[in-house]
Write a structure and sequence with these properties.
This protein has a six-stranded antiparallel β-sheet with strand order 2-3-4-1-5-6, covered by helices on one side. About 35% of the residues lie in helices and about 30% in strands.
Length: about 100
């Protein structure tokens, strides 16, 4: 029984060690309010900013999907790290 304890602890602790999904934040140029559902994320938009925590897809793809719904984005960041201007321009090319 004691031999199984380390393996049991490993399986119980593994999800906690995996970490949380990244926090993504976007600022639509035209503003946005409410909940916006895109493939891979549920965005909560208040005060002009939209936020989600999702590891369902790459951030660049989630940026493009949000831009398709709300229009051009002034900024997009992942865990506080801003997307560079080249990547943001590519994201905004998908805007509605």
């Amino acid at each position: 029984m004691r031999a199984l304890l380390p393996f049991t602890l490993l399986f119980v602790a593994a999800p906690a060690l995996a970490g949380a999904a990244p926090l993504m934040k976007a600022t639509p140029e035209a503003g946005a309010e409410g909940r916006i559902i895109t493939k891979g994320a549920s965005w909560n938009c208040t005060g002009g900013d939209c936020k989600t925590m999702s590891d369902a897809s790459r951030p660049n793809i989630l940026c493009e999907r949000l831009a398709k719904e709300v229009g051009r984005l002034a900024s997009f960041s992942v865990n506080g790290r801003a997307m560079d201007q080249t990547a943001l321009a590519k994201c905004n090319a998908k805007a509605k």
